[in-house]
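Late entry, written up from scratch paper. The run itself happened at the end of the previous shift, but nothing got recorded in the book at the time, so transcribing now.
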Amino acid sequence: MQKSTMSIYSLMVQFFQKSEPIQKFKSGSVLFQEKDSVEYVYLLLKGSIALGRVHLRGKDFILKILNDRELIVEYQLFKANPHHQFYAKALTDCELLFIKKEQFEEYILTDPEAMNALVAWLSTGYLKAQMKCQDLIMNGKKGGLYSILIRLCNSYGMKTEGGILIDLPLTHQELANLTYGTREVIQRTLKDLREKNIISYENQKFTVKNVNYLKEEVDCQNCSFEICGLN
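Output as recorded:
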């Protein structure tokens, strides 16, 4: 019988949790900034963290949002003196394990199962990024927003009587940062969706009442949740 493959997150929790204390971060705290020297990789045990960049003109772009049970490795692996390419900011209260970069890389290089799991995780992340770029390029600003809402449903959705609740507090500005659009354009599109009874917005949380409408508008291919997510 073939042995089931454990995720890189599960392997690392199993290997490091006994030796590393859990660190708590409050909502709004910055884990690291762009261009900071890399000291640690992180295991996100609980909470949500946004990864992004700030353009020279001050425009904030959120590249992805990670939820709990995620590994945060945002640098060139096995490179001498690497720097972070993005910032990481807590969107909710979080619990993390900090693992020294050198310990992580040694673990990966000396454990074949961990190396295989890391490669699988990186390849899935690559596909996610390619699919997200495709959606944003091919569907324009409005379609890009629809695509992000679908991905949010896949990553954070909870089925309720009223539809799919995206169980993550998001401001209109943060949603604009995710779609690389302006808040004004996003607000107009969201107003249109509310008037059509496709979505609702309460306590900084969106509920998608008709996800099939969004999928039809962007010619959704119904990819697996593993690929069509925001993390």
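The first strand starts at residue 22 and ends at 25.
(Scratch paper discarded after transcription.)
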